[in-house]
């Protein structure tokens, strides 16, 4: 056996190991960068210094009168079980239309040492409250039902 035939499998094995190691490294770092922890405002304040190094998701109700919009950015406060969290949203899209006072909102971003949550994504829960039309009772027929008139047919020869 010549040396060129023995070196060929070693080169293939070495290239395979390098490729697999690179793919594994990309997968691990990609997962760690995109991972975000869901925490409540109470849990956020109890996390200590860990809160400053993690990508977080925090939910709560928007405090009435706290929304201040500026283009695609907004500042507001989230309330949850008597605790308040000031949020600064700086995103590429404006806050959603359902983002209003007392709406449930989810902010995704990082918590800074100054006590402000810096959000890069903002979601507001859609209203799921469907009320009946004024003057009607749920589960009853409309006040003036529409009735269809039978169509008259004429046959011509």
Task: List the topology elements.
Blueprint: H1 3-34, E1 37-39, H2 41-46, E2 56-62, E3 68-70, E4 73-80, E5 83-90, E6 104-111, E7 116-124
Parallel strand pairs: 1-2, 5-7
Antiparallel strand pairs: 2-4, 2-6, 3-4, 4-5, 6-7
Walk me through this protein's architecture.
The chain is of the alpha+beta class. It has a domain at 36-124: OB fold (Dihydrolipoamide Acetyltransferase, E2P) (Beta Barrel), CATH 2.40.50. Helix content is 24%, strand content 29%. The protein has helices at 3-34, 41-46; strands at 37-39, 56-62, 68-70, 73-80, 83-90, 104-111, 116-124. It has a five-stranded mixed beta barrel. It starts with a helix and ends in a 33-residue tail after the last strand.
What would you say about this model in short?
Helix content is 24%, strand content 29%.
Query: What is the CATH class of the domain at 36-124?
Result: Mainly Beta
As for the CATH topology of the domain at 36-124, it is OB fold (Dihydrolipoamide Acetyltransferase, E2P)
How many strand elements? 7
**Terminus-to-terminus distance:** 100 Å
Helix and strand element order: HEHEEEEEE
Largest pleated sheet: 5 strands, mixed, barrel
Low-confidence regions: none
Strand neighbour order, sheet with most strands:
2-4-5-7-6
> Strand fraction band?
25-35%
Radius of gyration, in Å, reads 30 Å
Helix content: 10-25%
What is the global morphology?
A: flat
| Architecture (CATH level 2) name of the domain at 36-124 | Beta Barrel
Mean pLDDT: 78
Q: What is the name of the CATH superfamily of the domain at 36-124? A: Nucleic acid-binding proteins
Computed structural class: alpha+beta
């Amino acid at each position: 056996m010549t040396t060129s035939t023995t070196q060929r499998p070693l080169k293939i094995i070495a290239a395979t190991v390098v490729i697999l190691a690179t793919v594994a490294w990309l997968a691990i770092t990609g997962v760690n960068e995109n991972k975000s922890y869901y925490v409540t405002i109470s849990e956020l304040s109890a996390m200590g210094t860990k809160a400053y190094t993690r990508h977080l998701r925090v939910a709560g109700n928007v405090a009435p009168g706290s929304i201040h919009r500026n283009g695609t950015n907004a500042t507001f406060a989230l309330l949850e079980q008597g605790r308040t969290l000031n949020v600064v949203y700086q995103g590429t899209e404006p806050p959603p239309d359902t983002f209003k006072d007392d709406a449930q909102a989810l902010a995704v971003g990082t918590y800074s040492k100054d006590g402000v949550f810096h959000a890069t994504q903002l979601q507001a829960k859609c209203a799921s409250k469907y009320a009946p039309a004024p003057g009607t009772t749920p589960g009853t027929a409309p006040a003036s039902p529409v009735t269809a008139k039978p169509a008259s047919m004429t046959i011509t020869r």
